[in-house]
Amino acid sequence: MAETEHRPTNFVRQIIDKDLQSGLHNSIKTRFPPEPNGFLHIGHAKSICLNFGLANDYQGTCNLRFDDTNPEKENIDYVNAIKADVNWLGFTWDGDERYSSDYFEQLYGYALELIDKGLAYVDFSTQEQMREMRGTLKEPGTNSPYRDTPIAENHKLFEAMRAGEYKEGECCLRAKIDMTSPFMCMRDPVLYRIKFAHHHQTGDQWCIYPMYDFTHCISDALEHITHSLCTLEFQDNRRLYDWVIENISAPAVPRQYEFSRLNLEYTVLSKRKLIQLVDEHHVAGWDDPRMPTIAGLKRRGYTPASIREFCLRIGVTKMDNLVEMGMLEACIRDDLNVNAPRAMAVLDPIKVVIENYPVDQSETLVAPNHPNDESKGNREISFSREVWIEADDFREQANKKFKRLVLGKEVRLRNSYVIKAERFEQDQDGKVTTVYCSYDAETLGKDPADGRKVKGVIHWVDAASGVPAQINLYDRLFNVPNPAGAEDFVSTINPNSLQVVNGIVEASLTNAETGVAYQFERTGYFCADPDSSAEQLIFNRTVGLRDTWGRTEGA
RNA sequence: UGGGGUAUAGCCAAGUUGGUAAGGCAGCGGGUUUUGAUCCCGCGAUUCGUUGGUUCGAGUCCAGCUACCCCAGCCA
Predict the structure, then answer these.
(1) Domain A271-341+469-554 is of which CATH architecture?
(2) Is the ipTM of this complex over 0.95?
(3) What value does the mean pLDDT of chain A take?
(4) Which of A184, A351, A402, A429 shows its CA 20 to 30 Å from the CA of A409?
(5) Which stretch carries the motif 'KMSKS' region (predicted)?
(6) Which residues pair with A8 in a beta bridge?
(7) What is the CATH number of domain A11-259?
């Protein structure tokens, strides 16, 4: 798809333009810094597109850095999934992926530097004591009794922490800043804590791990990141970011800028909540097609280009937002409308028997793969005496607004003949099972010679060659626009977010490649599910077609 | 008077030396159409959270007010 030619401007670009013009920087370097404690989601895609997009547009580079300072929550599977997702989105990071843990030794050295400057101390207060001494939002905190431990002793104490001489929670390293600061994060923040945990990158090498605020800014400096972009909740932390950089022998001075995180209607985008959905089996896994994860969107049938386009359209600002799902759907429809070959599939089949068509005859028809793009070629579809049509496409009686098959009336079978409904059969519940029709043999590829107008066109699948398929129809995962705002977001889960249907697809779809999109004419965009253990074809509906009829009809 | 942020159409979002409100999504009309799809054409803010002020002129400058978001993890 043709992505928007020139990127819309935003405040980050303006800052970069200024920094380039003023000569502050000759080129830019950004980074995408996920913690490997879960799968990436569409919100991360916003950050990825921003960081990698900026690097591309300004001919700079972008690093992929795993912010792996909390081994208890992280693992290598997430690292691998994240790398795959970033690549799948179409981005390439500069050199090898980095890890904050690559810098543990240097970070340790900077911590020692702060200690030696009298700007950090080892605190043996309990967590509860620290909380009490921190004060509140409106009241200043009070100094720790360990705050004035002599420098030399702090130096030894910290070395002892590293050597494993203290238990978890027994002590921690804190920056000596200002317990009365209006910024809570400046009230002597913890820099290092003790964790006897195995780390996916450094193994058992360390028993002390640096905190985010100490690690991130230094990692940025070590990588010579020029513009460090993060989300709004880190605005206060910027004071600490700058404090650390100013007080150590930093090799560079990176700057942090914050933008608002993405909120999408009818889903949740917080790692904690997504983990809960997976752990409590509200969904089948991280790549469940209903999940807003990159892996889920991929399995659902979203393309990398459509997600990039979405990120372009939503923009980058500091305003809180809640983007409509329709925005995302418009992006994938725009992509698939021009790129997806058409095919026919019936989701809720009823039989049509064409009584004046020879019993043992069948013929091969040619159908274009795309109505507006001849270059996509044609395919062959078979036609015979019995075909399946959509149950919704037949009514015993209806007004002229209903442009489908009605008893005694004609309708065009897409890419085929005009048929007329003569009579029908239904089961004991009143559901129509079979419609007996006649066909006009002179209407293949042309209108009736006598000038009869046949307005309706419906899709169908040849009964003799059609293939049964499981079709997964997805709906929003939650019943409310902003589940994150609910008291209990789990209670707002939509119990009908997945509807499994047994349909019939045209024979050409038998070998549909996993993940490759098709438009099933008149019903939507679908792609084959990767589930290889399944015994039959499985198609996932990515998104339906825009449906103005369904709207008026339903109303 | 804790501090940090944000307020432009239903949603997203341009608007940067003050000069008379881009664009996209959604919606609504109309046209084309063997997908009620696509495509094409047309329609939306006398108004920029609010109240005042400065000015010939303010979304853009100033002051006050209001609403919403974030911060009291040895999480990120």
Answers:
(1) Beta Barrel (2.40)
(2) yes
(3) 96
(4) A429
(5) 268-272
(6) none
(7) 3.40.50.620
